[in-house]
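Renewal narrative, Specific Aim 1. Our central claim is that a sequence can be written position by position from structural information alone. The example that follows is taken directly from our test logs and has not been curated for this report. It begins with the C-alpha coordinates describing the chain, in the order in which they were read.
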Protein backbone atom coordinates (compact mmCIF):
# COMPACT_ATOMS: atom_id res chain seq x y z
CA UNK A 1 0.00 0.00 0.00
CA UNK A 2 1.51 3.29 -1.13
CA UNK A 3 1.75 6.18 1.31
CA UNK A 4 0.29 9.56 0.42
CA UNK A 5 3.12 11.63 1.86
CA UNK A 6 1.39 14.89 1.03
CA UNK A 7 -1.58 13.93 3.21
CA UNK A 8 0.72 12.74 6.02
CA UNK A 9 2.71 16.00 5.99
CA UNK A 10 -0.47 18.03 5.93
CA UNK A 11 -2.19 16.07 8.71
CA UNK A 12 0.90 16.47 10.93
CA UNK A 13 1.08 20.20 10.12
CA UNK A 14 4.58 19.82 8.73
CA UNK A 15 3.61 21.84 5.67
CA UNK A 16 1.51 24.95 5.15
CA UNK A 17 -1.78 24.97 3.23
CA UNK A 18 -0.01 26.88 0.43
CA UNK A 19 2.60 24.10 0.14
CA UNK A 20 -0.16 21.50 -0.10
CA UNK A 21 -2.14 23.43 -2.69
CA UNK A 22 0.89 24.14 -4.87
CA UNK A 23 1.70 20.42 -4.94
CA UNK A 24 -1.85 19.56 -5.95
CA UNK A 25 -1.91 22.25 -8.62
CA UNK A 26 1.41 21.01 -10.00
CA UNK A 27 -0.15 17.65 -10.84
CA UNK A 28 -3.28 19.33 -12.25
CA UNK A 29 -1.16 21.53 -14.49
CA UNK A 30 0.90 18.54 -15.55
CA UNK A 31 -2.24 16.64 -16.51
CA UNK A 32 -3.29 19.60 -18.64
CA UNK A 33 0.06 19.72 -20.48
CA UNK A 34 0.49 16.09 -21.45
CA UNK A 35 0.66 12.51 -20.30
CA UNK A 36 3.28 11.51 -17.73
CA UNK A 37 3.61 8.40 -15.64
CA UNK A 38 2.21 8.12 -12.13
CA UNK A 39 5.78 7.92 -10.83
CA UNK A 40 6.74 11.20 -12.52
CA UNK A 41 3.58 12.92 -11.31
CA UNK A 42 4.38 11.74 -7.77
CA UNK A 43 7.91 13.14 -8.10
CA UNK A 44 6.54 16.45 -9.36
CA UNK A 45 3.99 16.70 -6.56
CA UNK A 46 6.49 15.97 -3.78
CA UNK A 47 9.09 18.30 -5.28
CA UNK A 48 6.66 21.20 -5.74
CA UNK A 49 5.58 20.82 -2.12
CA UNK A 50 9.20 20.73 -0.91
CA UNK A 51 10.19 23.76 -3.03
CA UNK A 52 7.32 25.76 -1.53
CA UNK A 53 8.22 24.46 1.95
CA UNK A 54 11.88 25.58 1.79
CA UNK A 55 10.90 28.87 0.17
CA UNK A 56 8.81 29.59 3.24
CA UNK A 57 11.98 29.08 5.30
CA UNK A 58 14.05 31.54 3.33
CA UNK A 59 15.57 29.14 0.78
CA UNK A 60 15.60 30.30 -2.82
CA UNK A 61 15.62 26.74 -4.13
CA UNK A 62 15.42 23.09 -3.13
CA UNK A 63 18.60 21.02 -3.27
CA UNK A 64 17.54 17.48 -4.06
CA UNK A 65 20.77 16.18 -2.52
CA UNK A 66 19.75 17.82 0.77
CA UNK A 67 16.07 16.89 0.96
CA UNK A 68 14.37 18.62 3.96
CA UNK A 69 14.66 16.44 7.05
CA UNK A 70 11.22 17.52 8.25
CA UNK A 71 9.69 16.03 5.08
CA UNK A 72 11.27 12.62 5.58
CA UNK A 73 11.11 10.19 2.66
CA UNK A 74 12.72 6.81 2.06
CA UNK A 75 15.82 7.30 -0.08
CA UNK A 76 14.24 5.57 -3.07
CA UNK A 77 11.22 7.92 -2.90
CA UNK A 78 13.21 11.16 -3.10
CA UNK A 79 12.61 12.63 -6.57
CA UNK A 80 15.52 12.90 -9.01
CA UNK A 81 16.19 15.31 -11.85
CA UNK A 82 15.59 12.69 -14.54
CA UNK A 83 12.01 12.16 -13.34
CA UNK A 84 11.37 15.89 -13.10
CA UNK A 85 12.84 16.71 -16.50
CA UNK A 86 10.31 14.42 -18.15
CA UNK A 87 7.46 16.55 -16.78
CA UNK A 88 5.94 19.12 -19.11
CA UNK A 89 5.66 21.84 -16.44
CA UNK A 90 9.37 21.65 -15.58
CA UNK A 91 11.95 23.67 -17.51
CA UNK A 92 15.64 22.82 -17.71
CA UNK A 93 17.75 25.85 -16.91
CA UNK A 94 20.20 25.29 -19.73
CA UNK A 95 17.65 25.09 -22.52
CA UNK A 96 14.17 26.22 -21.49
CA UNK A 97 14.65 29.18 -19.16
CA UNK A 98 12.46 31.34 -21.38
CA UNK A 99 9.48 29.04 -20.87
CA UNK A 100 7.29 31.26 -18.66
CA UNK A 101 4.62 28.56 -18.49
CA UNK A 102 6.89 26.21 -16.54
CA UNK A 103 6.14 25.83 -12.85
CA UNK A 104 9.61 24.62 -11.80
CA UNK A 105 13.10 25.11 -13.17
CA UNK A 106 15.80 22.47 -12.71
CA UNK A 107 19.45 23.49 -12.64
CA UNK A 108 21.69 20.58 -11.74
CA UNK A 109 20.50 19.32 -8.36
CA UNK A 110 18.67 22.56 -7.59
CA UNK A 111 14.96 23.03 -8.21
CA UNK A 112 13.39 26.50 -8.23
CA UNK A 113 9.98 27.98 -8.60
CA UNK A 114 10.25 29.58 -12.04
CA UNK A 115 9.83 33.11 -10.68
CA UNK A 116 12.66 32.76 -8.17
CA UNK A 117 14.99 31.29 -10.78
CA UNK A 118 14.33 34.37 -12.89
CA UNK A 119 15.04 36.67 -9.93
CA UNK A 120 18.37 34.92 -9.33
CA UNK A 121 19.34 35.06 -12.99
CA UNK A 122 18.39 38.73 -13.18
CA UNK A 123 20.65 39.59 -10.22
CA UNK A 124 23.51 37.55 -11.65
CA UNK A 125 23.24 39.11 -15.11
CA UNK A 126 23.08 42.66 -13.75
CA UNK A 127 26.20 42.11 -11.63
CA UNK A 128 28.09 40.57 -14.54
CA UNK A 129 27.24 43.57 -16.69
CA UNK A 130 28.43 46.08 -14.07
CA UNK A 131 31.58 44.53 -12.64
CA UNK A 132 34.80 44.46 -14.66
CA UNK A 133 38.31 43.23 -13.98
CA UNK A 134 39.90 46.67 -13.60
CA UNK A 135 36.87 48.94 -13.17
CA UNK A 136 36.00 52.07 -15.11
CA UNK A 137 38.18 55.05 -15.95
CA UNK A 138 38.67 57.84 -13.42
CA UNK A 139 40.29 61.25 -13.58
CA UNK A 140 43.94 61.77 -12.66
CA UNK A 141 42.76 63.93 -9.75
CA UNK A 142 40.93 61.05 -8.02
CA UNK A 143 44.10 59.76 -6.32
CA UNK A 144 44.82 63.22 -4.87
CA UNK A 145 41.22 63.54 -3.66
CA UNK A 146 41.21 60.12 -2.01
CA UNK A 147 44.49 60.77 -0.20
CA UNK A 148 43.14 64.03 1.18
CA UNK A 149 39.94 62.32 2.35
CA UNK A 150 41.79 59.30 3.79
CA UNK A 151 45.15 60.55 5.08
CA UNK A 152 47.40 57.60 5.94
CA UNK A 153 47.95 57.55 9.74
CA UNK A 154 49.85 54.27 9.78
CA UNK A 155 51.65 51.74 7.61
CA UNK A 156 48.82 49.16 7.70
CA UNK A 157 46.30 49.22 4.89
CA UNK A 158 43.38 51.59 5.55
CA UNK A 159 40.49 49.45 4.34
CA UNK A 160 38.17 52.45 4.40
CA UNK A 161 40.37 54.08 1.74
CA UNK A 162 40.46 50.83 -0.25
CA UNK A 163 36.66 50.55 -0.06
CA UNK A 164 36.23 54.14 -1.24
CA UNK A 165 38.66 53.67 -4.14
CA UNK A 166 36.93 50.44 -5.17
CA UNK A 167 33.49 52.09 -5.11
CA UNK A 168 34.81 54.98 -7.20
CA UNK A 169 35.99 52.73 -10.03
CA UNK A 170 33.52 49.82 -9.86
CA UNK A 171 29.93 50.65 -10.89
CA UNK A 172 28.77 47.91 -8.50
CA UNK A 173 30.47 47.59 -5.11
CA UNK A 174 29.77 45.90 -1.77
CA UNK A 175 31.29 47.34 1.41
CA UNK A 176 30.86 45.01 4.36
CA UNK A 177 32.02 45.19 7.95
CA UNK A 178 30.92 44.71 11.52
CA UNK A 179 29.64 47.43 13.85
CA UNK A 180 31.94 50.38 14.34
CA UNK A 181 34.14 49.62 11.32
CA UNK A 182 33.19 52.93 9.71
CA UNK A 183 30.83 52.00 6.86
CA UNK A 184 28.98 55.33 7.12
CA UNK A 185 32.19 57.36 7.41
CA UNK A 186 33.57 55.54 4.39
CA UNK A 187 30.52 56.09 2.23
CA UNK A 188 30.26 59.77 3.17
CA UNK A 189 33.85 60.37 2.13
CA UNK A 190 33.59 58.32 -1.03
CA UNK A 191 30.48 60.28 -2.04
CA UNK A 192 32.53 63.43 -1.51
CA UNK A 193 35.18 61.96 -3.82
CA UNK A 194 32.59 61.11 -6.48
CA UNK A 195 31.15 64.63 -6.23
CA UNK A 196 34.65 66.01 -6.70
CA UNK A 197 34.72 64.06 -9.96
CA UNK A 198 31.20 65.18 -10.93
CA UNK A 199 29.60 67.99 -8.84
CA UNK A 200 26.26 67.39 -10.60
CA UNK A 201 26.10 63.73 -9.52
CA UNK A 202 22.53 62.78 -8.58
CA UNK A 203 22.68 60.64 -5.42
CA UNK A 204 20.01 58.66 -3.58
CA UNK A 205 20.35 57.04 -0.15
CA UNK A 206 18.13 54.08 0.74
CA UNK A 207 17.64 51.20 3.17
CA UNK A 208 15.22 48.25 3.40
CA UNK A 209 13.15 49.66 6.30
CA UNK A 210 12.08 53.08 7.53
CA UNK A 211 14.04 52.65 10.73
CA UNK A 212 17.24 51.75 8.88
CA UNK A 213 16.71 54.65 6.47
CA UNK A 214 16.27 57.10 9.36
CA UNK A 215 19.41 55.82 11.06
CA UNK A 216 21.35 56.13 7.81
CA UNK A 217 20.16 59.72 7.40
CA UNK A 218 21.24 60.60 10.93
CA UNK A 219 24.64 58.91 10.60
CA UNK A 220 25.43 60.66 7.32
CA UNK A 221 24.17 63.96 8.70
CA UNK A 222 26.58 63.63 11.62
CA UNK A 223 29.45 62.73 9.29
CA UNK A 224 28.71 65.80 7.16
CA UNK A 225 28.51 68.06 10.20
CA UNK A 226 32.00 67.04 11.30
CA UNK A 227 33.13 69.17 8.38
CA UNK A 228 36.13 69.10 6.12
CA UNK A 229 34.42 67.34 3.22
CA UNK A 230 34.42 69.02 -0.20
CA UNK A 231 31.05 69.12 -1.96
CA UNK A 232 29.28 67.94 1.21
CA UNK A 233 26.16 69.87 0.15
CA UNK A 234 25.72 67.40 -2.70
CA UNK A 235 25.25 64.50 -0.26
CA UNK A 236 21.49 64.01 0.37
CA UNK A 237 20.04 64.78 3.79
CA UNK A 238 17.19 62.27 3.48
CA UNK A 239 16.97 58.54 2.80
CA UNK A 240 14.29 56.39 1.18
CA UNK A 241 12.97 52.97 1.99
CA UNK A 242 13.56 50.70 -0.98
CA UNK A 243 9.83 50.47 -1.65
CA UNK A 244 9.55 54.25 -1.66
CA UNK A 245 12.66 54.60 -3.84
CA UNK A 246 11.15 52.27 -6.43
CA UNK A 247 7.75 53.96 -6.19
CA UNK A 248 5.69 51.07 -4.91
CA UNK A 249 1.92 51.09 -5.41
CA UNK A 250 -0.72 48.34 -5.52
CA UNK A 251 -0.14 48.29 -9.29
CA UNK A 252 3.55 47.51 -8.87
CA UNK A 253 6.76 49.53 -8.90
CA UNK A 254 6.97 52.82 -10.78
CA UNK A 255 10.63 52.21 -11.66
CA UNK A 256 11.69 49.00 -13.38
CA UNK A 257 13.59 47.64 -16.37
CA UNK A 258 11.72 49.90 -18.79
CA UNK A 259 11.71 53.03 -16.61
CA UNK A 260 14.97 53.65 -14.80
CA UNK A 261 15.52 55.48 -11.53
CA UNK A 262 16.63 59.11 -12.12
CA UNK A 263 19.92 58.83 -10.20
CA UNK A 264 23.59 58.47 -11.07
CA UNK A 265 24.58 56.83 -7.78
CA UNK A 266 22.51 54.89 -5.24
CA UNK A 267 23.77 53.84 -1.80
CA UNK A 268 21.81 51.14 0.05
CA UNK A 269 22.53 50.51 3.74
CA UNK A 270 21.69 47.38 5.78
CA UNK A 271 21.90 45.26 2.65
CA UNK A 272 21.80 42.02 4.67
CA UNK A 273 18.06 42.65 5.05
CA UNK A 274 17.41 42.68 1.29
CA UNK A 275 15.74 39.54 -0.05
CA UNK A 276 16.31 38.13 -3.52
CA UNK A 277 13.16 39.54 -5.21
CA UNK A 278 13.85 43.06 -3.89
CA UNK A 279 17.49 42.93 -5.00
CA UNK A 280 16.32 41.90 -8.47
CA UNK A 281 13.84 44.81 -8.56
CA UNK A 282 16.50 47.33 -7.46
CA UNK A 283 19.08 46.17 -9.99
CA UNK A 284 16.59 46.04 -12.86
CA UNK A 285 15.54 49.65 -12.15
CA UNK A 286 19.10 50.98 -12.58
CA UNK A 287 20.19 52.66 -15.79
CA UNK A 288 23.29 51.01 -17.30
CA UNK A 289 25.50 53.89 -16.13
CA UNK A 290 24.04 54.14 -12.59
CA UNK A 291 26.42 53.23 -9.77
CA UNK A 292 25.18 50.99 -6.92
CA UNK A 293 26.97 50.78 -3.55
CA UNK A 294 25.72 48.24 -1.00
CA UNK A 295 26.63 48.55 2.70
CA UNK A 296 26.05 45.90 5.33
CA UNK A 297 27.37 43.30 7.71
CA UNK A 298 27.64 39.98 5.89
CA UNK A 299 27.55 38.06 9.20
CA UNK A 300 24.18 39.40 10.35
CA UNK A 301 20.85 37.66 9.98
CA UNK A 302 19.72 37.23 6.41
CA UNK A 303 16.49 38.73 5.10
CA UNK A 304 13.14 37.62 6.50
CA UNK A 305 12.01 36.61 3.02
CA UNK A 306 13.83 34.25 0.65
CA UNK A 307 17.51 34.67 -0.05
CA UNK A 308 20.78 35.59 1.62
CA UNK A 309 21.95 37.98 -1.06
CA UNK A 310 24.58 39.96 0.85
CA UNK A 311 26.16 36.80 2.28
CA UNK A 312 26.21 35.33 -1.24
CA UNK A 313 27.77 38.47 -2.71
CA UNK A 314 30.49 38.43 -0.02
CA UNK A 315 30.91 34.64 0.12
CA UNK A 316 30.41 35.00 3.86
CA UNK A 317 32.72 32.94 6.00
CA UNK A 318 35.56 33.08 3.48
CA UNK A 319 38.32 35.66 3.07
CA UNK A 320 39.25 36.70 -0.46
CA UNK A 321 41.98 38.76 -2.03
CA UNK A 322 41.97 40.82 -5.22
CA UNK A 323 43.58 40.29 -8.59
CA UNK A 324 47.09 41.58 -9.27
CA UNK A 325 45.99 44.13 -11.86
CA UNK A 326 43.27 45.57 -9.64
CA UNK A 327 45.62 45.61 -6.65
CA UNK A 328 48.03 47.73 -8.68
CA UNK A 329 45.25 50.13 -9.55
CA UNK A 330 44.09 50.49 -5.94
CA UNK A 331 47.68 50.98 -4.85
CA UNK A 332 48.10 53.80 -7.35
CA UNK A 333 44.91 55.48 -6.10
CA UNK A 334 45.55 55.13 -2.36
CA UNK A 335 49.30 54.78 -1.98
CA UNK A 336 49.08 51.42 -0.14
CA UNK A 337 51.06 48.31 -0.98
CA UNK A 338 48.37 45.73 -1.80
CA UNK A 339 50.68 42.84 -2.64
CA UNK A 340 49.80 40.94 0.56
CA UNK A 341 46.14 40.55 -0.48
CA UNK A 342 46.65 39.47 -4.09
CA UNK A 343 45.16 36.16 -5.19
CA UNK A 344 44.60 34.64 -8.64
CA UNK A 345 41.51 35.55 -10.57
CA UNK A 346 38.66 33.43 -9.24
CA UNK A 347 35.43 35.42 -9.19
CA UNK A 348 33.52 38.25 -10.75
CA UNK A 349 33.03 39.67 -7.23
CA UNK A 350 36.55 39.62 -5.82
CA UNK A 351 37.38 43.11 -7.19
CA UNK A 352 34.00 44.55 -6.20
CA UNK A 353 33.74 43.53 -2.52
CA UNK A 354 35.70 45.10 0.33
CA UNK A 355 35.56 44.10 3.99
CA UNK A 356 36.30 46.75 6.62
CA UNK A 357 38.35 45.02 9.29
CA UNK A 358 39.10 47.48 12.09
CA UNK A 359 36.41 48.28 14.67
CA UNK A 360 36.66 51.84 15.96
CA UNK A 361 33.92 51.15 18.52
CA UNK A 362 35.06 47.92 20.14
CA UNK A 363 38.73 47.90 21.11
CA UNK A 364 40.79 45.06 22.55
CA UNK A 365 39.28 45.59 26.02
CA UNK A 366 35.67 45.45 24.79
CA UNK A 367 33.67 42.44 25.95
CA UNK A 368 30.99 43.13 23.33
CA UNK A 369 33.57 43.05 20.55
CA UNK A 370 35.26 39.92 21.89
CA UNK A 371 31.93 38.14 22.36
CA UNK A 372 30.75 39.07 18.86
CA UNK A 373 33.95 37.66 17.34
CA UNK A 374 33.70 34.44 19.37
CA UNK A 375 30.06 33.90 18.44
CA UNK A 376 30.74 34.66 14.78
CA UNK A 377 33.51 32.05 14.82
CA UNK A 378 31.29 29.53 16.61
CA UNK A 379 33.87 29.36 19.42
CA UNK A 380 31.73 28.51 22.42
CA UNK A 381 34.69 28.11 24.78
CA UNK A 382 35.88 31.65 24.02
CA UNK A 383 32.33 33.04 24.17
CA UNK A 384 31.82 31.50 27.61
CA UNK A 385 35.18 32.84 28.75
CA UNK A 386 34.19 36.37 27.74
CA UNK A 387 30.81 36.17 29.49
CA UNK A 388 32.40 34.82 32.68
CA UNK A 389 35.41 37.18 32.75
CA UNK A 390 35.04 40.10 35.15
CA UNK A 391 37.53 41.97 32.98
CA UNK A 392 34.67 42.32 30.45
CA UNK A 393 31.86 43.94 32.47
CA UNK A 394 30.14 45.13 29.27
CA UNK A 395 29.20 41.55 28.29
CA UNK A 396 27.50 39.46 30.96
CA UNK A 397 25.42 36.32 31.31
CA UNK A 398 22.30 36.36 33.48
CA UNK A 399 21.27 33.11 35.21
CA UNK A 400 18.02 31.44 34.19
CA UNK A 401 17.10 30.59 37.78
CA UNK A 402 17.11 34.20 39.04
CA UNK A 403 15.17 37.38 38.34
CA UNK A 404 18.20 39.60 37.77
CA UNK A 405 16.87 40.44 34.33
CA UNK A 406 13.90 42.26 35.88
CA UNK A 407 16.07 44.70 37.81
CA UNK A 408 18.06 45.41 34.64
CA UNK A 409 14.82 46.12 32.78
CA UNK A 410 13.69 48.55 35.48
CA UNK A 411 17.07 50.29 35.46
CA UNK A 412 17.19 50.32 31.67
CA UNK A 413 13.80 52.00 31.20
CA UNK A 414 13.86 54.18 34.33
CA UNK A 415 15.16 57.37 32.70
CA UNK A 416 12.74 56.96 29.80
CA UNK A 417 9.74 56.43 32.09
CA UNK A 418 10.76 59.37 34.32
CA UNK A 419 10.86 61.71 31.33
CA UNK A 420 7.39 60.52 30.28
CA UNK A 421 5.95 61.11 33.79
CA UNK A 422 7.62 64.53 34.06
CA UNK A 423 6.37 65.67 30.65
CA UNK A 424 9.86 65.88 29.19
CA UNK A 425 10.71 66.93 25.66
CA UNK A 426 9.44 64.37 23.08
CA UNK A 427 12.90 64.43 21.48
CA UNK A 428 14.53 63.56 24.82
CA UNK A 429 11.97 60.82 25.41
CA UNK A 430 12.73 59.22 22.03
CA UNK A 431 16.46 59.45 22.72
CA UNK A 432 15.99 57.91 26.18
CA UNK A 433 14.03 55.01 24.72
CA UNK A 434 16.96 54.23 22.40
CA UNK A 435 19.28 53.73 25.37
CA UNK A 436 17.96 50.27 26.27
CA UNK A 437 16.20 47.44 24.46
CA UNK A 438 15.08 43.92 25.26
CA UNK A 439 15.52 41.48 22.36
CA UNK A 440 13.99 38.03 21.94
CA UNK A 441 14.23 35.31 19.31
CA UNK A 442 10.61 34.16 19.15
CA UNK A 443 7.17 35.66 18.67
CA UNK A 444 5.26 33.34 20.98
CA UNK A 445 5.95 31.32 24.13
CA UNK A 446 7.13 32.29 27.62
CA UNK A 447 10.03 34.34 26.22
CA UNK A 448 8.34 35.35 22.97
CA UNK A 449 7.87 38.99 22.07
CA UNK A 450 4.17 39.08 22.97
CA UNK A 451 4.46 37.61 26.48
CA UNK A 452 7.71 39.46 27.22
CA UNK A 453 6.09 42.80 26.40
CA UNK A 454 3.19 42.03 28.72
CA UNK A 455 5.62 41.09 31.51
CA UNK A 456 7.65 44.27 31.04
CA UNK A 457 4.52 46.42 31.10
CA UNK A 458 3.40 44.83 34.38
CA UNK A 459 6.91 45.10 35.80
CA UNK A 460 7.22 48.82 35.01
CA UNK A 461 3.73 49.46 36.30
CA UNK A 462 4.41 47.72 39.64
CA UNK A 463 7.65 49.70 39.97
CA UNK A 464 5.63 52.92 39.64
CA UNK A 465 7.33 53.86 36.37
CA UNK A 466 4.35 53.55 34.04
CA UNK A 467 0.70 54.49 34.45
CA UNK A 468 -2.14 51.97 34.21
CA UNK A 469 -0.89 49.61 31.52
CA UNK A 470 -4.24 47.82 31.40
CA UNK A 471 -5.34 50.71 29.17
CA UNK A 472 -4.45 50.34 25.49
CA UNK A 473 -3.05 53.85 25.07
CA UNK A 474 -1.27 54.80 28.26
CA UNK A 475 1.42 57.55 28.36
CA UNK A 476 4.80 56.01 27.58
CA UNK A 477 3.55 53.06 25.57
CA UNK A 478 6.23 52.30 22.97
CA UNK A 479 5.01 50.82 19.69
CA UNK A 480 6.56 49.54 16.50
CA UNK A 481 4.89 49.80 13.09
CA UNK A 482 4.63 46.36 11.47
CA UNK A 483 3.24 47.27 8.03
CA UNK A 484 4.23 49.96 5.54
CA UNK A 485 1.64 52.68 5.05
CA UNK A 486 2.71 55.06 2.30
CA UNK A 487 -0.33 57.30 2.71
CA UNK A 488 0.44 57.99 6.38
CA UNK A 489 4.19 57.89 5.81
CA UNK A 490 4.97 55.20 8.38
CA UNK A 491 6.98 52.09 7.63
CA UNK A 492 7.69 48.65 9.04
CA UNK A 493 10.09 49.09 11.97
CA UNK A 494 9.28 52.73 12.82
CA UNK A 495 9.17 53.35 16.59
CA UNK A 496 6.62 55.68 18.21
CA UNK A 497 5.86 56.74 21.79
CA UNK A 498 2.41 57.51 23.18
CA UNK A 499 2.39 60.96 24.87
CA UNK A 500 0.01 63.74 25.87
CA UNK A 501 0.76 66.53 23.39
CA UNK A 502 -1.10 69.83 23.58
CA UNK A 503 -3.77 68.13 25.65
CA UNK A 504 -4.35 65.31 23.16
CA UNK A 505 -3.27 61.66 22.93
CA UNK A 506 -0.60 61.52 20.26
CA UNK A 507 2.06 59.06 19.16
CA UNK A 508 5.36 60.76 18.36
CA UNK A 509 7.71 59.51 15.63
CA UNK A 510 10.92 60.80 14.10
CA UNK A 511 10.48 61.85 10.48
CA UNK A 512 12.90 61.32 7.59
CA UNK A 513 14.42 64.80 8.06
CA UNK A 514 15.17 64.28 11.74
CA UNK A 515 12.13 66.22 12.98
CA UNK A 516 9.09 64.95 14.89
CA UNK A 517 5.62 63.86 13.82
CA UNK A 518 2.58 63.63 16.14
CA UNK A 519 -0.18 61.29 15.01
CA UNK A 520 -3.49 60.22 16.50
CA UNK A 521 -3.47 56.53 17.52
CA UNK A 522 -6.43 55.98 15.22
CA UNK A 523 -4.33 56.86 12.17
CA UNK A 524 -1.66 54.27 12.80
CA UNK A 525 -1.22 51.20 10.57
CA UNK A 526 -0.63 47.76 12.11
CA UNK A 527 1.62 47.99 15.16
CA UNK A 528 2.68 46.22 18.35
CA UNK A 529 4.15 47.10 21.74
CA UNK A 530 7.94 47.49 21.53
CA UNK A 531 9.54 47.33 24.98
CA UNK A 532 10.76 43.99 23.64
CA UNK A 533 11.26 43.22 19.97
CA UNK A 534 12.55 40.28 17.96
CA UNK A 535 16.17 40.32 16.88
CA UNK A 536 14.96 40.40 13.28
CA UNK A 537 13.04 43.61 13.94
CA UNK A 538 16.06 45.18 15.66
CA UNK A 539 18.17 45.10 12.50
CA UNK A 540 19.08 48.60 11.43
CA UNK A 541 18.99 49.84 15.06
CA UNK A 542 21.58 50.46 17.74
CA UNK A 543 21.08 50.84 21.50
CA UNK A 544 23.40 51.76 24.33
CA UNK A 545 22.41 48.61 26.24
CA UNK A 546 20.77 45.39 25.05
CA UNK A 547 19.34 42.40 26.90
CA UNK A 548 18.83 39.19 24.92
CA UNK A 549 16.31 36.73 26.38
CA UNK A 550 16.46 33.21 24.93
CA UNK A 551 14.33 30.17 25.84
CA UNK A 552 15.67 27.29 27.87
CA UNK A 553 14.98 24.90 25.00
CA UNK A 554 16.69 25.58 21.67
CA UNK A 555 14.57 26.20 18.59
CA UNK A 556 15.67 26.19 14.96
CA UNK A 557 15.41 29.95 14.52
CA UNK A 558 18.07 30.53 17.20
CA UNK A 559 21.31 30.54 15.21
CA UNK A 560 24.80 31.95 15.43
CA UNK A 561 23.76 34.80 13.13
CA UNK A 562 20.80 35.69 15.36
CA UNK A 563 22.97 35.85 18.50
CA UNK A 564 25.68 37.84 16.66
CA UNK A 565 23.07 40.30 15.38
CA UNK A 566 21.69 40.78 18.90
CA UNK A 567 25.14 41.36 20.39
CA UNK A 568 26.08 43.92 17.76
CA UNK A 569 22.96 46.03 18.41
CA UNK A 570 24.62 47.03 21.73
CA UNK A 571 27.10 49.89 21.90
CA UNK A 572 28.03 49.88 25.61
CA UNK A 573 26.39 46.97 27.47
CA UNK A 574 25.09 43.50 26.60
CA UNK A 575 23.34 40.98 28.83
CA UNK A 576 22.24 37.51 27.77
CA UNK A 577 19.83 35.29 29.69
CA UNK A 578 20.03 31.76 28.26
CA UNK A 579 20.44 28.16 29.30
CA UNK A 580 23.64 26.28 28.50
CA UNK A 581 21.98 23.79 26.14
CA UNK A 582 20.29 26.50 24.08
CA UNK A 583 23.47 28.60 24.02
CA UNK A 584 25.59 25.69 22.82
CA UNK A 585 23.13 24.70 20.11
CA UNK A 586 22.77 28.31 18.93
CA UNK A 587 26.52 28.76 18.46
CA UNK A 588 26.73 25.43 16.63
CA UNK A 589 23.87 26.33 14.25
CA UNK A 590 24.51 28.40 11.15
CA UNK A 591 21.92 29.85 8.81
CA UNK A 592 22.37 28.03 5.53
CA UNK A 593 20.14 29.13 2.70
CA UNK A 594 20.24 27.25 -0.55
CA UNK A 595 20.70 29.35 -3.67
CA UNK A 596 22.72 29.21 -6.84
CA UNK A 597 23.91 32.81 -6.63
CA UNK A 598 26.98 32.22 -4.45
CA UNK A 599 28.28 29.41 -6.66
CA UNK A 600 27.66 31.42 -9.81
CA UNK A 601 29.53 34.43 -8.39
CA UNK A 602 32.42 32.69 -6.65
CA UNK A 603 33.00 29.57 -8.74
CA UNK A 604 33.03 31.13 -12.19
CA UNK A 605 36.72 31.37 -13.11
CA UNK A 606 36.01 32.50 -16.64
CA UNK A 607 33.53 35.25 -15.76
CA UNK A 608 36.03 38.10 -15.99
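The sequence written for that structure reads:
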Amino acid sequence: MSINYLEVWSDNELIRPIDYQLARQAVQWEAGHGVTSAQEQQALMLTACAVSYVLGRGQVCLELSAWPKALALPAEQIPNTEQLMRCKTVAVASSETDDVSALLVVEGERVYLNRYFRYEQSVLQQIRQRVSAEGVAASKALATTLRKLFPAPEADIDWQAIAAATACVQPFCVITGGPGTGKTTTVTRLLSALLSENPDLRIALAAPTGKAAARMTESIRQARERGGLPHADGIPSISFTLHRLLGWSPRGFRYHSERYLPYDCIVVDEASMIDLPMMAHVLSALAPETRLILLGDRDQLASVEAGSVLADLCDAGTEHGITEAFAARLGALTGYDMSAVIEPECSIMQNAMVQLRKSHRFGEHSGIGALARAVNDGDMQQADAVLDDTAFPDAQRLPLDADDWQSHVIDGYQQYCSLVKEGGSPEWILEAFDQFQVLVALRSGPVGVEETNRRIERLLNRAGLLADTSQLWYPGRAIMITRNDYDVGLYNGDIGIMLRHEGLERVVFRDAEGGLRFLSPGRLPNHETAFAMTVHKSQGSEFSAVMLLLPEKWQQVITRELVYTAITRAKKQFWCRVGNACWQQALNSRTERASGLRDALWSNHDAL
